[in-house]
Amino acid sequence: MNLLIINGPNLNLLGKRETSIYGSESFEDYFNKLVEEFKADNLVYYQSNSEGDLIDKLHSEGYKTDGIIINAGAYTHTSLAIADAISAIESPVIEVHISNVHKREEFRHKSFLSAVCKGVIAGFGLDSYRLAIEALKRS
Ligand code: DQA
Prior knowledge:
single chain
């Protein structure tokens, strides 16, 4: 399968950002492990801190890739524009969060994306991404 992982704002700092919440592993190191584990698949990783770039990526890949895993970071809780982009495309999209957003501040409980995604995985640390890949491969 061709699978795209999209990370939104501040997730380029994984490994050094609020490590008590997000852990001490960089996403690049974790992604290399995923590539090793899912050798038979083509995994691509994209990160941007800009809402428009995330939308452009959804547009350019969302009609040809087999599945998209998105952690939109704080845009999850604010971006109708990203939700509309997910609605517009054809590839199935899974919303992922490293932390259990429902155990955290109330403003993190609302997601604009959940209603337009195939499913949501949150709270399993970086393993949330692996679980999302498994879910896409089974569906
Ligand atoms: C996050 C949760 C968001 O609330 C936060 O803004 C992030 C990361 C997570 O993966 O747990 O940037 O999406």
